[in-house]
Structure formats: C-alpha cells, structure tokens
Design brief:
The chain has 237 residues and is an all-alpha fold. Helices cover 74% and strands 0% of the residues. Bound molecules: zinc ion.
C-alpha cells in the first residue's frame, strides 16, 4: 500500500496535468480548472477513508450536507415559499447527514468495499448528478468533475497495486490480492448492491453523448496542439 503522501502527490500530479490539458483545449474555464485539480486530488485520498479516520469524514460530511442543503434551496428558491424552503433545507441536510452518512459509514466498515472500482464510480457519478441536476453546472463541467474524482481514485488504486509489488518484482502480500478491485466473493451482497446502484446511476445519468461529442470534437485539440509549444515569436526572442 502506498502511503498518504504518495497518494496526495500522485493524484495531484496526474489531475494537475490532465486538468491543464483540458483547460488548454478550452473545454473548461478557469474555475473549472481549479475544481478539477482539487477534485482529482480528493479522489486520490478517498479509497483509504474508512471508519478509522472518523473525524475528517465527519467534518467532510457536515460540509457536504451543508452544501447539498444549500444547493437544494438555491435550486428551488423562486418556486417555493419561505416555509417550504426551510423544510427543504432541513430535509436535505438531514438526509445527507444521517441517511447517506449512515450508509457510507456502514459500508466503510467493510474496507474492501470502499477500496474498489465500483464504489468510486458511484461517488464520481454521484458528483456529476449533484453538479448537473442540483447545482445546475454545465454538462461538460459536471462530467469532468465526476470523471476527475473517479480518475483520482483510480490513480490511488493503481499506486496501491504498484506498491504491493516490491523491487524484486515479487508480491509482498499475496493475501491482499489486487488493489484494482471489481468484486470480492466474501462481500458479494455489498458488491451486488454497488452494481445495482451503479446501473441505476448510469441509466439516469446526464446525457453522456453530447459530452462525448464535445470532447471528441477536433477543434479543441487543434487549439491545444497550437498551445503546446511556445509560439514562433517567443522562440525568436
Ligand atoms: Zn489504498
């Protein structure tokens, strides 16, 4: 297993380079660029969060609950009455803080479940949902946010995988199995639940085709190619 600093640096470097690339291609704006770096870095720390580090998790969840409740109220601010908004605020906060948090902590007890590809995919997609449907951020930015969170988590799992092989090329802990986990028989019911949630999230996800069209459009990449090297004038100076 790679340590905290390795994960922090690894995820920061990878998401930094990737964010800069999509930023230079003109696919995200200034604030989107910063968000992608931050989310990718957070993603790189997520798989190791378990009930042992309960304080940062609680703090994070309190914050997430506030943001979620606030976003709900902002979303419906003109349609609902003040009283309804206050009820919505409380309900949104309570839902995140108690229901989602409860499910999250129950799952993290089963460490193998959170330290897995499907769990991280759910978190990434969940962020895309929140950003697109609730915060009403653009489709492209929403998909990038989810993908960066997920990508950071994948860097984490990859690093763990690499560190489980020592310099002699031999596995140190054969028993621990692979870090890039998709399924584990002893947690089969948890994995079944994860894949059901993931399937539902994928089915109702914000339109992926238009995002895909946008990132496969050659124009931004031509722009990027022009931006890779210093311009001719700078070269001459
Ligand atoms: Zn790990």
């Amino acid at each position: 297993m790679a340590n905290f600093n390795t994960h922090l640096n690894g995820a920061f470097m990878v998401s930094g380079v990737m964010s800069l690339t999509v930023y230079k291609a003109g696919l995200i704006d200034d604030s989107g660029f910063i968000m992608c770096v931050v989310l990718g870095t957070i993603g790189g720390l997520l798989p190791d969060l378990d009930s042992d580090n309960s304080t940062p998790i609680k703090l994070g969840f309190n914050l997430a609950s506030f943001v979620f409740a606030f976003a709900l109220v902002m979303h419906w601010r003109s349609e609902l009455s003040l009283l309804a908004l206050m009820a919505l605020w409380l309900a949104g906060y309570g839902f995140m803080r108690y229901v989602v948090f409860y499910i999250f902590t129950t799952m993290t007890v089963h460490r193998g479940v959170i330290h897995s590809v499907p769990y991280m995919a759910i978190l990434g997609l969940g962020l895309t949902y929140l950003s697109y449907f609730v915060l009403e951020i653009s489709l492209t930015a929403s998909w990038f946010y989810g993908l960066f969170l997920f990508g950071g988590a994948m860097v984490h799992l990859l690093l763990d995988e690499m560190y489980s092989v020592n310099l002699m090329g031999m596995r140190m802990k054969r028993s621990s199995g692979t870090a890039m986990k998709f399924y584990q028989h002893k947690d089969k019911w948890w994995y079944l639940l994860l894949y059901v949630i993931l399937a539902l999230l994928l089915y109702f996800a914000p339109p992926f085709e238009s995002f895909w069209q946008q990132i496969t459009d050659p124009a931004p990449w031509t722009k990027l190619k022009l931006g890779v090297l210093p311009t001719m004038i700078e070269n001459r100076l």
